[in-house]
Amino acid sequence: MKVSALTFQDLLFRLQGFWAARGCVLQQPYDVEVGAGTMAPETFLRVLGPKPYRGGYAQPSRRPADGRYGENPNRLFKHTQFQLILKPPPENVQELYLQSLEPMGINLAQHDLKFEEDNWEWPAGGAWGVGWQVMLDGLEITQFTYFQQCGGLDLDPICAELTYGMERIAQFLQDVDSIYEIVWARDPETGAAVTYGDVRWEEELQFSVYNFEMADVDKLWAHFNLYEQEAQTLLSQANALMADEDASPTARRSFPLLATYELALKCSHLFNLLDARGAISVTERVGVIGRIRALAVGVAKTYAEQQAAWKRS
Amino acid sequence: MIAGAEAELGQRVRELLERERLLRPEAKLTTYSTPRRLAVLATGVEASQADTEEQLTGPSWKVAFKDGAPGPAAAAFAKKAGVTVGELQKAVTPKGEYVRATVKRSGRSAMELIAAELPKEVLAIYWAKNMHWRAGRPERLVRPVRWVVALFDGEIVPLEIAGIAAGRASRGHRVLHGEAPVSISAAKDYSEALRSAGVVVSVGERRQIVRKALDAATRTIAGARWREDEALVETVTYLTEWPTVILGEFEREYLALPEEVLVTVMRDHQKYFAVEDATGKSELQLGPAPYYRKLLPHFLAVLNTEVGPESAAIIRHGNARVLRARFKDAQFFWEFDQKMTLDARVESLKNVTFHGTLGSYYLKTEQNLAVAKALVAALPRTESGTPRSTTGAIVDEPSLLSATRLAKADLTTELVKEFTELQGVIGGQYALTQGHSGVVAQAINDQYRPSSTEDRIPQNLEGQLLGLADRVQTITSMFGIGLEPTGSKDPFALRRAANAIVKILAESELSLTISDVVGAGVQVFKELGRVGGAPNPSRPGGAATGFDPDGAETSSFLRERLQFYLKDVRGFAYDVVNAVLAADADDVRDAIARAEALTAVRGGEDFAAISAAFKRIKNILRQAKEKGFTIGSPAGMKLAPEAQRLANAAGALVPEVATLRQERNYAQALARIATLRPTVDAFFDKVMVLDSDAQVRGAHLGLIDQVLRNFSGIADFSEIVTTT
């Protein structure tokens, strides 16, 4: 690797430092399995409603079908997305984004950078936006999206969402051919390196075995149904409560929609596992995505009402 | 998308200036665009509209000026017209005398008009996918508006678009120029000011730069050329503001991968141009390993910047690393996939769903095989009993069946999961490496062709038959469970599949008709089709009748596609198509031959007259039917001389036309039919068809009915639109 390049963790520190200095709330990642940083409530629910917000977090994102038993140098079951939302986006959001690359050691004068049209959508979340994939010397390093709709609701104000692919950026800057060769940390005293492989290879191997071979399809379906049922029960209670004119503001505010959303995320992850197991046919697929969508969109809609009710009270 | 918006902006500005009478005859509009900007420069624009005079007519003179003195009506009219009472004039008209005012309107300035009208035009530009960005504001554009430059010569036009006030400050290239504003002193300097800020605003110029830079970079390798790809040139032209090109390399070992894989990775995933040996063959060919000697281990990347040699090395290295990773992936999949042969993979198609109700690709493969056999059974034979094409080429049935059996096996390979657009192509490659013949490999390779009306049909007869079998199996089984396309909804792309069937029937040398193809599909669906895992209920003894048990719907669906093919793909006139298809719409190649012949003769005077006569015959027969007249026979009747002459002429012509039709000599057949014209004309001139004598009438009707029947087999001439 290039000796001057930053370690994986240093890259995250630098990036977080840059955005902290611009007023962003930084958090640790969300602690339920998600396929992308967008799905964490810090994005999915924060973007709803009028309240301005700027925040970021490095989200491990699980995509069971992408696992390759730790054998493929460019594929991971779980990768790290540094997810940033700017609501509403400042006028110079693209310039700010470009500036954020500098602390990571990317001198744009030495590189080729393109914003290529790439519109994003997550049908199960009723979410879409327009934007670009940001290409640095032919490598997609960031997805830049002007979020337009979430949970089937139009966003006003909209939100800019920046999703940095941290492994790709590290691989690029450290100039290594395998993700597993990325230097994650380096002992400042001895210079000894701990690699990405040291930290994560075993996890990639074992989860590939589980996701592709051992996850029990019937139990996955059973878990899916259980989580779905509980989410549906909560959601119908929430809807009854929001519709009840006599309900107290406190009762409305305290209704656990955040927990309901977590149950929907569980369903989404179980769907991904079932998919990796090859247990979902093309026609079934549409139906199951529809079930997850009903939960995610249902929560989003009710959550937006809850927030509005809170504001009024 | 940017190209369309650029053209639309130019058009809108032109229309705006014309509408406001600001455009001089010598005016010229030039449009520009880059990924960050749209612009239009108009020369020959008036600084203001010309003044106009308008005559307004008011009340009658007598009412307004009683006894010569202006009354209230005169004052009111003067006020309305914006003149003084003293300026009112007397207008003498044929209806009497009226008050008239000459109103002078001074033209508005271009500045004022453009400021008022241009923002509406910009915001009205169509975008396939647009966005909203200002809270609480309605405007939607492709991306947020960040700056606006509006200049009339050197002066700022005071307008505002989506909350941004126009100025003279533009922005340059993000990296080459940086964030400092670029001041445009006058409209005419726009292009040059931006050029010095690292932006080439003219698309045509950028396209030229890209092509020249690709040429220049390729020239450094002896005997090489970049693979022409117009669509990719357009893509990169619209992705860059200051295009330059770098030439990169990859390891030779990756050339062992199929060319299609390499080119797809470079073009679709990386937007790189492939470099090839200029002496290589131009057509994709399957052959023994190493498969393609044509590609060279280089790529060309179009950059949106200009850098020195040191940075160029960094960028080249970065791009090569990404490409290598992609190739490595493909190579990994390629090697991984070899662990299991296509033959072995057929079994795993049981786990690949074709459709939830219809079952797996394994079931589909079984049915495709049965359809393929049925199609072969419908082909003509050589003397030794081998199926053949119309030109006598042999259909290799064992190879066709091998290809059909293996056709879908590549759906289980990692390489196809990664590059879905290469389904079929990958299967063909694997078939070859696994020792199957070139015929089998080519058929598998081509099975999804033609993918559009422009694409070519499969190269060999076996590939054509596989393409027909696979698609008609899909269509008939989808129709069988009621999933036919409705309106604009066609989720299984059945129209595209039907278009491909028509195109193969039209352009191959297979003597198959639409009913052969549909018949094979329907028969197999009845015998082998599964619905919801159970045998097809429309089968004898089944629970229910299928949606399209006799294939009538499927046939009419294909005939619609044939009509589309003749009109939109082959460009035949709609009345020719209607006439030809009204006569027969089953044999596609025959329909084309008839349409060609008909197109050639339809302009002739005799032919137009014959068409008109046939239309008349049709009308008379319809009226006769409505009135309940009996259609008799002219045979043995004493007829008027003109009627007898027609009967004789037509009778003599029938065997002649039949022979010509048999020989598919349609041009000659139509020419012969046209010779009937004087006889037909004379008949209608002299003979009262609907004679009061029922027997005579019956004989006349019988005569024209025979003429119509005997000569409408090539085309129904009454469909031909004539000017007479």
Explain what the structure shows.
The complex is a heterodimer of chains A (313) and B (724). Chain A is of the alpha+beta class and 313 residues long. Chain A folds into two domains: 8-212, Bira Bifunctional Protein, Domain 2 (BirA Bifunctional Protein, domain 2, 2-Layer Sandwich); 215-312, Methane Monooxygenase Hydroxylase, Chain G, domain 1, CATH 1.20.58.180. Chain A has nine helices and ten strands. In chain A, strands 1, 2, 3, 4, 5, 6, 7 and 8 form an eight-stranded mixed beta sheet that branches. Chain B is α+β, with helices and mostly antiparallel strands. Chain B has five domains: 2-48 and 109-195, no CATH class; 52-105, no CATH class; 203-338, no CATH class; 355-408 and 426-571, no CATH class; 578-719, Orthogonal Bundle (Isoleucyl-tRNA Synthetase, Domain 1), CATH 1.10.730. The longest helix of chain B is centred in the middle third of the chain and has 30 residues, at 309-338. The interface between A and B is large, with 41 and 46 residues.
Short description:
The complex is a heterodimer of chains A (313) and B (724). Chain A is of the alpha+beta class.
CATH topology grouping of the largest domain in chain A: BirA Bifunctional Protein, domain 2
Number of domains of chain B: 5
What is the distance, rounded to the nearest whole angstrom, between the alpha carbons of the first and last residues of chain A?
Answer: 58 Å
Largest beta sheet of chain B, briefly? Answer: 4 strands, antiparallel
Q: What value does the Rg of chain A take, in angstroms?
A: 21 Å
CATH superfamily of the largest domain in chain A: Bira Bifunctional Protein, Domain 2
Query: Helicity range of the residues of chain A?
Result: 40-55%
